[in-house]
UniProtKB/TrEMBL annotation:
<dbReference type="InterPro" id="IPR013849">
    <property type="entry name" value="DNA_helicase_Holl-junc_RuvA_I"/>
</dbReference>
<keyword id="KW-0963">Cytoplasm</keyword>
<dbReference type="InterPro" id="IPR011114">
    <property type="entry name" value="RuvA_C"/>
</dbReference>
<dbReference type="InterPro" id="IPR036267">
    <property type="entry name" value="RuvA_C_sf"/>
</dbReference>
<dbReference type="Pfam" id="PF14520">
    <property type="entry name" value="HHH_5"/>
</dbReference>
<comment type="function">
    <text>The RuvA-RuvB-RuvC complex processes Holliday junction (HJ) DNA during genetic recombination and DNA repair, while the RuvA-RuvB complex plays an important role in the rescue of blocked DNA replication forks via replication fork reversal (RFR). RuvA specifically binds to HJ cruciform DNA, conferring on it an open structure. The RuvB hexamer acts as an ATP-dependent pump, pulling dsDNA into and through the RuvAB complex. HJ branch migration allows RuvC to scan DNA until it finds its consensus sequence, where it cleaves and resolves the cruciform DNA.</text>
</comment>
<dbReference type="InterPro" id="IPR000085">
    <property type="entry name" value="RuvA"/>
</dbReference>
<feature type="region of interest" description="Domain I">
    <location>
        <begin position="1"/>
        <end position="64"/>
    </location>
</feature>
<keyword id="KW-0234">DNA repair</keyword>
<feature type="region of interest" description="Domain II">
    <location>
        <begin position="65"/>
        <end position="142"/>
    </location>
</feature>
<dbReference type="Pfam" id="PF01330">
    <property type="entry name" value="RuvA_N"/>
</dbReference>
<feature type="domain" description="Holliday junction DNA helicase RuvA C-terminal">
    <location>
        <begin position="155"/>
        <end position="200"/>
    </location>
</feature>
<dbReference type="InterPro" id="IPR012340">
    <property type="entry name" value="NA-bd_OB-fold"/>
</dbReference>
<keyword id="KW-0238">DNA-binding</keyword>
<dbReference type="Pfam" id="PF07499">
    <property type="entry name" value="RuvA_C"/>
</dbReference>
<comment type="subunit">
    <text>Homotetramer. Forms an RuvA(8)-RuvB(12)-Holliday junction (HJ) complex. HJ DNA is sandwiched between 2 RuvA tetramers; dsDNA enters through RuvA and exits via RuvB. An RuvB hexamer assembles on each DNA strand where it exits the tetramer. Each RuvB hexamer is contacted by two RuvA subunits (via domain III) on 2 adjacent RuvB subunits; this complex drives branch migration. In the full resolvosome a probable DNA-RuvA(4)-RuvB(12)-RuvC(2) complex forms which resolves the HJ.</text>
</comment>
<protein>
    <recommendedName>
        <fullName>Holliday junction branch migration complex subunit RuvA</fullName>
    </recommendedName>
</protein>
């Protein structure tokens, strides 16, 4: 089994890339988010690899972070979510987005991914809601932090939506909110939004 590849980026496509590892070209499928963050060819990179062996093929799936790889593994435990659908979900949602969406029961956020309809989105939320508290939220989450309660996730989700309504992108608001909720544990939604606005206005 292959667990890690370090090599030169030869090319990238919409859903895969080729890595040259000591003269051998490995075809690695990945989320569009991962592919977009790879260095341009012919730069060197490292990818964590999930190897899937089937009767007719051996497939390699690549991840820049262990967080994304863990979410891939969790998503594929849901019936109807194969590797392709899991990558589609990870292409439109970061680990932090997924943690929030599933904790809050936001099925609509999941249906943005190709291949995920309303019924499958509901199954994902139902099967994973009790499991996401222990999942990583990505690099935006400070070390040591674990979102273990639905209440905390609800405050984050509501605050993100409020800030989005004020014109702030999720990508810039999420790190600020994560830090605030760690520093001000148990803070009300109003307080979290006020503190976030103060920080984002700098």
């Amino acid at each position: 089994m292959i667990g890690l590849l370090t090599g030169i980026v030869v090319s990238t496509d919409a859903d895969r890339c080729i890595l040259d590892v000591n003269g051998v070209g490995y075809l690695v499928s990945a989320s569009s988010r991962t592919l977009a963050n790879l260095p341009a060819a012919p730069e060197k990179t490292r990818l964590l690899i999930e190897t899937v062996v089937r009767e007719d093929a051996i497939q390699l799936f690549g991840f820049l972070t262990s967080d994304e790889q863990e979410w891939f593994r969790l998503l594929t435990t849901v019936q109807g979510v194969g590797a392709k659908v899991a990558l589609a979900i990870l292409s439109v949602a970061t680990p932090g987005d997924l943690l929030l969406s599933i904790s809050a029961g936001d099925k609509a956020a999941l249906t943005r991914a190709a291949g995920v309809g309303a019924r499958l989105a509901e199954r994902i939320v139902t099967e994973l809601k009790s499991k996401v508290g222990k999942m990583p939220a990505g690099g935006a989450t400070p070390a040591g932090r674990s979102v273990s309660s639905h209440a905390a996730a609800s405050v984050e989700n509501d605050a993100l939506q409020a800030l989005a309504g004020l014109g702030f992108r999720r990508a810039e608001a999420w790190p600020v909110l994560s830090r605030i909720l760690v520093e001000h544990e148990g803070a009300t939604l109003d307080k979290v939004i006020r503190l976030a606005l103060k920080d984002l206005a700098r």
